[in-house]
Amino acid sequence: MRDTAPAGFVDFVVARGPALHRTAVLLTRDEQAAEDLVQIALAKAWQSWARIDGNYEAYVRRILINEFASAWRRRWRTEVPTADLPELPRGNGDLSTRQVLLAALATLPARQRAVVVLRFFHDYTEAATAEAMGTSVGTVKSQTFKALAALRVSEELREDPAPDLTGSAREEMTR
Questions:
Q1: pLDDT band at 81 (very low <50, low <70, confident <90, very high)
Q2: Nearest Cα to 21, choosing from 9, 6, 33?
Q3: Please, is 9 exposed, middle or buried when counting C-beta atoms within 10 Å of its C-beta (0-12, 13-18, 19+)?
Q4: Mean pLDDT of 11-28
Q5: Is the alpha carbon torsion for 82, 83, 87, 88 positive or negative?
Q6: What is d(CA 42, CA 23) in angstroms, rounded to the nearest whole number?
Q7: What do you get for the CA distance between the two ends of the chain, in Å?
Q8: Contact present, 112 and 143 (Cβ < 8 Å)
């Protein structure tokens, strides 16, 4: 490994590092895991910086997504350490929209989460998303469809978990 940064690497990290970190936070839902993920992606990019064709962000973002997907597949799934309580009380009005959205994103599989983050948080086209993920446009479309369908029925995003069908509410529905 070299002792000095390749030409343009430091400028890229300063300019695009925060955006990469935001993407990683949306994918991992954890600040420390996001920092680790960005660090791994940048370390891998450092090694091949001179061979990148000029679209540095796309290259690093692809590494980021691949590392996230690989780590997600390797992860032991029976126990996950967390600082948050696993069950949030229903009807808690102090949850921010961001927290609710992150909780809903966490319910999606890794590929679907990556598609949602790239398409809707970074405004990538289907083609750009497919390129970033190393997959076909058809896969992006199907993963987007499945992810949005899952989010539509997500408990985290429901405003009213179940309608009240007792008493006067039932009478209103039958009129």
A1: low
A2: 33
A3: middle
A4: 93
A5: negative
A6: 14
A7: 75
A8: yes
CA distances from 107 to 36, 86, 152, 167 (A): 21, 13, 12, 35
Residue carrying the six token digits 């891998």: 44
Contacts of 150 (CB under 8 A, 6+ apart): 107, 108, 112
Alpha helices in the chain (DSSP H): 9-28, 31-47, 56-74, 97-106, 110-116, 126-133, 137-152, 168-174
The larger pLDDT score, comparing residue 90 to residue 106, is at 106
Rounded Cα distance between 2 and 4, Å, is: 6
Q: Which residue has the tokens 């993963």?
A: 143
Cβ count within 10 A of residue 23: 24
Tokens of 42: 């940048």
Find where tokens 């890794």 sit.
110
Q: What is the pLDDT of residues 117-150, one digit of tens each?
A: 999 989 999 999 999 999 999 999 999 999 999 8
Other beta carbons within 10 angstroms of residue 47's beta carbon come to 11
Residue type, 3: D
Rounded Cα gap, residues 65 and 133, in angstroms = 7
C-alpha 124/C-alpha 117 separation (Å) is 9
